[in-house]
Write a structure and sequence with these properties.
The chain is of the alpha/beta class. The chain is 37% helix and 21% strand. It is built from 6 helices and 5 strands; from the N terminus they run βαβαβαβααβα.
């Protein structure tokens, strides 16, 4: 005799109906690359995108690693502790501002040679719906050399990328402001 019982298939057996799977909450990635400032305009744009569905927001700070991917690793090409601290402060201030507005915030820090590629990996891995990036003013020659950040990020992702213009500050001016 078999030890398995047969399922009842007659009168009185309820049919299982599949439950509707709820949609996951929307997720927005707010990115600060190389300590670019996150101004109130950037926060306002992020809040406008997140408010209708009360999206979860992740603030990602990316510190720049200089050199090429094929070059030998060298400690002098990595971000200094001051650069890392400045990037961390920018991310923390933005997160605090968004928390006061009632949003669920996650904070992350990363180092990268190719920031758009890293952003694309984050978007695919964590399934973000939107990316918001502060776009600092730069001279035309620098934009030609470095490329447009939104276009570069768009190459690596399929989600909308919102660039918010912010006033640019050169590294030389930043260092002068940090000196006592």
């Amino acid at each position: 005799m078999s030890t398995f019982k047969r399922a009842r298939t007659g009168r009185g057996v309820a049919k299982a109906t599949p439950r509707p799977v709820p949609d996951p909450p929307r997720r927005i990635l707010l990115v600060s690359v190389a300590s670019s400032p996150i101004t109130p305009d950037v926060i306002r744009q992020t809040v406008a995108l997140a408010t209708p569905e009360h999206a979860k927001i992740t603030v990602l700070g990316i510190a720049r690693v200089f050199g090429t991917a094929l070059g030998l690793p060298h400690q002098g090409l990595k971000p200094t502790p001051l650069e890392w601290e400045a990037q961390s402060k920018v991310v923390q201030d933005a997160a605090d501002d968004l928390r006061t507005r009632g949003f669920d915030i996650l904070i992350a820090m990363a180092k990268a040679r190719n920031a758009p590629k890293l952003i694309g990996r984050w978007v695919r891995a964590k399934r973000f719906h939107t990316v918001v990036i502060p776009d600092p003013d730069r001279p035309a020659w620098r934009r030609r050399v470095e490329g447009e950040l939104t276009k570069e990020v768009g190459r690596y992702t399929e989600v909308p990328v919102h660039a918010v213009p912010v006033p640019g500050v050169s590294p030389r001016v930043q260092r002068a402001r940090q000196r006592p």
